């Protein structure tokens, strides 16, 4: 919690007329840390022992997959839930002797006909993940997914992270992936493979971490599968 006083100060806009721009700022008087979901979760020894017993079970994979979106049922959902369980736990990161780092995060694309609960799988996964960001591909741009440079009222430029940066260490769920523009879709390739976002705009050159997994959902071409056509 922050205790502050909202104040105004006059700043010149730099125009010929000498227009005065009033900007709002906070004069912080006190800062207190609240207990919330962002803190590290601690487990009791009894809970840790229960986790160890659960990990020794041979059917642990099936137990975890059945626990994902239990309200969504059907024979076609078994493999989807297993894939989402693997994505939530992710793989093992590797660092080669030459210093190259291999990502352990898993990217998944759910491709199917409408009304197959793809969006529900995406929303459930973002709620379960420690860090989850849900967005729609139709209303997202390359800058909104990666990073953008914004100019404030005083004419100064600052960097603003997008969905891939905000979900660092978690999962980014992109619905309606097929509705995205090709240029916006290409912009996230670096974040998916290298797990970084390179920015060189308005005199700002930096590299942002984007160690997140991408869970996307899309419909086939023309909306539905055509059994009379092949790839």
Kindly estimate the percentage of residues that lie in beta strands according to DSSP: 25-35%
The residue ranges in which pLDDT falls below 50 over 5 or more consecutive positions are: none
User: What is the tally of helical segments?
Assistant: 8
Q: How far apart, in Å, are the first and last alpha carbons?
A: 56 Å
**Given the C-alpha coordinates, what overall shape results?**
globular
Q: Which structural class matches the secondary elements?
A: alpha/beta
- H/E order of the elements? EEHHHEEEHEHEEHEHHEEE
Q: Tell me about the biggest sheet? A: 4 strands, parallel
The tally of beta strands, per DSSP, is: 12
Mean pLDDT, all residues: 81
Give Rg in angstroms: 23 Å
Q: Helix content range of the residues, please?
A: 25-40%
Major beta sheet, strand line-up: 5-12-9-6
Secondary structure elements and their pairing?
Blueprint: E1 2-12, E2 20-31, H1 45-55, H2 60-66, H3 77-89, E3 94-95, E4 101-102, E5 108-111, H4 118-128, E6 132-136, H5 142-145, E7 147-151, E8 157-161, H6 163-166, E9 171-175, H7 182-187, H8 189-193, E10 196-201, E11 204-209, E12 213-218
Parallel strand pairs: 5-12, 6-9, 9-12
Antiparallel strand pairs: 1-2, 3-4, 7-8, 10-11
Helix pairs in contact: 2-3
Written account of the structure:
By secondary structure, this protein is α/β, with parallel strands linked by helices. Helices cover 26% and strands 30% of the residues. The chain contains eight helices and twelve strands. The protein has helices spanning 45-55, 60-66, 77-89, 118-128, 142-145, 163-166, 182-187, 189-193, and strands at 2-12, 20-31, 94-95, 101-102, 108-111, 132-136, 147-151, 157-161, 171-175, 196-201, 204-209, 213-218. It has a four-stranded parallel sheet with strand order 5-12-9-6. A two-stranded antiparallel sheet has the order 1-2. Strand 7 and strand 8 (157-161) form a beta hairpin. The protein is globular and about 65 Å long. The termini are far apart. The model has no long low-confidence stretch (mean pLDDT 81).
């Amino acid at each position: 919690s922050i205790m502050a006083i909202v104040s105004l100060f006059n700043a010149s806009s730099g125009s010929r007329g000498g227009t005065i721009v009033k900007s709002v700022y906070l004069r912080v008087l006190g800062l207190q840390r609240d207990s919330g979901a962002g803190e590290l979760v601690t487990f009791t020894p009894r809970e840790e022992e229960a986790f160890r017993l659960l990990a020794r079970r041979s059917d642990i994979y099936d137990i975890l997959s059945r626990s994902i979106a239990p309200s969504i049922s059907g024979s076609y959902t078994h493999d989807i839930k297993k894939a989402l369980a693997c994505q939530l736990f992710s793989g093992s990161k590797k660092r080669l002797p030459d210093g190259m780092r291999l990502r352990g995060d898993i990217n998944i694309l759910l491709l199917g006909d409408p009304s197959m609960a793809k969006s529900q799988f995406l929303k459930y996964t973002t709620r379960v993940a420690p860090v989850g960001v849900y967005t729609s591909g139709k209303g997202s741009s390359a800058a909104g997914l990666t990073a953008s440079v914004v100019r404030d009222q005083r004419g100064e430029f600052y960097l603003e992270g997008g969905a891939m940066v905000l979900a660092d260490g978690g999962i980014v769920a992109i619905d309606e992936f097929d509705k995205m523009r090709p240029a916006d879709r290409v912009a996230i390739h670096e974040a998916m493979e290298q797990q970084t976002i390179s920015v060189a705009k308005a005199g700002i050159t930096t590299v942002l971490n984007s160690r997140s997994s991408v869970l996307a959902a899309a419909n086939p071409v023309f909306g539905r599968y055509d059994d009379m056509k092949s790839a």
